[in-house]
Structure formats: structure tokens, C-alpha cells
Design a protein that fits this description.
single chain, alpha+beta, HU Protein, Chain A, 2 domains, 3-stranded antiparallel β-sheet, two-stranded antiparallel ribbon, 5 strands, 44% helix, extended
């Protein structure tokens, strides 16, 4: 599902104009980016948690040459599924 499909589905489910849903999603995106920039953790109970984490410097390996390379430390984003998402995933039969 892409953003346009998500906006359409939410607009239909919530019975609100798609333009309103699109504005809300844009606002959510802006707030998530601002929170991550500040180092804040965002938790939507039952749905997901988004937080900035640090990845330590480490030694890696170039897969083409096998040569060892140094990978610098970096900030990254961690997204953790909440209980409702985990239950929904668990309810789907494994194929």
C-alpha cells in the first residue's frame, strides 16, 4: 500500500475528505521527523514506537573484494511494532 492508497482507505473508513487525511499524514510525518531530530521517542500505544538510536562504529567487509573496511558510527531510526500490530501479524496463517 502506498501513501495515496493509504489516504484513500483512511478517508473512506473515517468518512472525511482525502485532502484532510493527506494533511494529517503530512503533519504526522513532520512531527515524527522533528521528534527524531530532537532525540524524542514517539509512542502510539498499541500501534508502534519510533525512536532514534546510535549504531557503534564497526569493522565490515567489502563483499566484492573481501577487504576489511571501517564503518563509521551513525544515528539510525528504530521502529517497534505495538501489541495490536503484533496480534494482527500473528493472526495471519503462515504460508
Amino acid at each position: 500500500m502506498n501513501k495515496a492508497e493509504l489516504v484513500s482507505a483512511i478517508a473512506k473508513r473515517a468518512d472525511v475528505p482525502a485532502s484532510t487525511v493527506d494533511a494529517v499524514i503530512a503533519g504526522l510525518q513532520d512531527e515524527l521527523v522533528d521528534a527524531i531530530t530532537r532525540g524524542d521517542k514517539v509512542a502510539v500505544s498499541g500501534l508502534l514506537t519510533v525512536e532514534r538510536t546510535q549504531r557503534s562504529a564497526r569493522t565490515g567487509r567489502n563483499p566484492q573484494t573481501g577487504e576489511s573496511i571501517e564503518i563509521a558510527a551513525a544515528n539510525t531510526v528504530k521502529v517497534t511494532a505495538g501489541s495490536n500490530l503484533k496480534k494482527a501479524a500473528a493472526a495471519v496463517p503462515v504460508s
